[in-house]
Amino acid sequence: MTSSSFTLALVASALVLGPAHSQEAPPPPQESVPAEDDMPGDRHWIRPEDLPAPVNEGDPEAPDFENNPVLVDAPAGRMPDVPDGFEVEVFASGFTQPRVMRTAPNGDIFLAESGTGRVLTFDADAALPAEPEVFAEGLDRPFGIAFYPVSEPRYVYVAAADRVVRYPYDDGDREATGPGEVIISNIPTERHWTRDLAVSPDGEHLFVSIGSASNVAGAMSETPPGGIEAWEATHGLGAAWDDETNRAVVRVFDPEGLNVRNYATGLRNCSGMTIQPETDQLWCTVNERDHLGADVVPDMLTTVEGGAFYGWPWYYAGGFEDPAHAGERPDLADQVTAPDVLIQAHSSTMQLLFYDAQAFPAEYHGDAFATLRGSWNREHRTGYKVVRAIMEDGVATGEYVDFMTGFVLDAERVWGRPVGITLTHDGALLVGDDANGTIFRVSATEPEAPEEPPYGFFLNDAWDTTANHVFMYGRFADEVLIGDWDGDGTDSITVRRGNTYYVNNTLGGGEAEHVFVYGRPDDTVLVGDWDGDGVDTLAVRRGAEYHVKNDLAGGPADQVVVYGRSGDQVVVGDWDGDELDTFAVRRGATYFVKNTIAAGEADQVVVYGRAGDITLAGDWDGDGDDTFAVRRGATYYVKNTIAPGEADIVLVYGRAGDEIYVGDWNGDGEDTLGVRRAP
């Protein structure tokens, strides 16, 4: 029997599951550490309810603390720190304030060099260090870049501080073939000047982000011209006025620059935007306000919904009122859209992207990378790194993990400030540092040859980090069934090919111990102990009809029963502890549990989890009753009773792409997890 290192992390949290909205409770909040101590793999989870009270002292337009870093050259041979399994090299260097990077459909890289007013390009297959070409120049602090239309672009849009322009573009152009056409002009440039761009998923519109003209609208008058109701009718819910008119917003416009209007409001400085590939949702990074203390107000990563209000200047992090505007807009208190991910306050969150390539390990797929340029207004420095925001099925969990660190040498000296980020055509990550003007390339390294099979079955006897049974059996195209085929109390593997079954009564490879034919090749097959003799056998399902067999042999079914509907999902378990397995059918997040193999009404109806969950059944605590667990990505929410409410165990196990199986692998009466990985 062999062992294999296997990722499994218990999460000290609870999950409320049931008909209401479900939300996982994170671990207790951690104290922020100085940036020089950050390391790849450090995990963070900031909840609104854990935020300290704001510190409201002095002028709200002035920062609490000024602590600009001393920028130094990169130490000789120094590279940023990244997790094991990745390597960093210099992609290109020598730039002045390199900011946004975007990848053209053909793989060429576009860079906004804000400090020189230029847009630069790099050949997709350039040898390193790459040499740039000048696509456009003469712009006022260019920042955002977008290709339109997305798949076969005819234009490159560039957002400068004071305008949006577009240039004609054909596939492979690395120098603009014509002058820039002004699409939107006269954008005010006071204070926040970074303007990012994104194209709507339907290709009909573009978005541009415009940050606020102040820290927290401290000089704004009491009411807007014409009153609040009239103002919001034309500018949007929660829109600010005076010098803040059409500031702290995401605006939307037609490709020709027509019909410009506010899309979302209350976003103090949305300095990075992107469309999430998995959901087609617009996301942005937000630099929040500076006057309420070292840990308030957190920056954020958030989805951006049309017509939504995100709080600035009156509220933050959902419904927390800014004391500088206490009592001014109680009408907005319950209309603030809460952000998806809170980032340590004053991190200066800049750009983000969703990893949709295949070069990184599977657990990175679909997650968001965000650059944190770093604080200038906090006693203990924070930021100066790239983080990974964890997603499950396209939804942010709220947790983020440090990915690239090491730019901070000590309490004063800093040699890098990450801003731009994009993917190369081969799935590597490019990160731009606007302190030393360097672009780094991060790629996954080839894994070392494992001592044990890199694929096959990995089965755990307990909720720990070691796979107790590692072996290969069958073919990777086989359907896998788990059961106690010989009544010895231990589950093992059967593989199915068409309507032929190959039974193995040990947790190992080799030849099948029993082969038989049952049912039809297109049947849905279920496993259970239908007669209580301790031996698992098969049932085949055809629509809402179940053909139950009490031995591992061909021939007619021992029982045929109709239950539920043909579109139901079916889960098998011993729901009442009588040693007989029966059916439960699932519709969305509702389970109809039957304690006998018979037609008729369900004996119990329960709502648990979410409609999109993957459901597992097992006797998780060894009490003789099977109950449910739901899976979201690589996270499992285990319940020891058939009832709504909090999960009894929440754990992260394996990889989001694993095939997962449930069984009692060691005969101790408790079901645990195992996975199969194909090459």
Automatic annotation (TrEMBL):
Pyrroloquinoline quinone-dependent pyranose dehydrogenase beta-propeller domain span: 81-293, 334-443
Keyword Secreted applies: no
InterPro entries named among the record's database cross-references: 6-blade_b-propeller_TolB-like, Beta-prop_PDH, Integrin_alpha_N, Quinoprot_gluc/sorb_DH_b-prop
Keywords carried by this UniProt record: Signal
Domain of life: Bacteria
Range of residues in the leader sequence: 1-22
Region named Disordered: 19-63
Bias kind Basic and acidic residues: ranges: 40-50
Name of this protein: Pyrroloquinoline quinone-dependent pyranose dehydrogenase beta-propeller domain-containing protein
Source organism of the structure: Georgenia subflava
Lineage, broadest ranks: Bacteria, Bacillati, Actinomycetota, Actinomycetes, Micrococcales
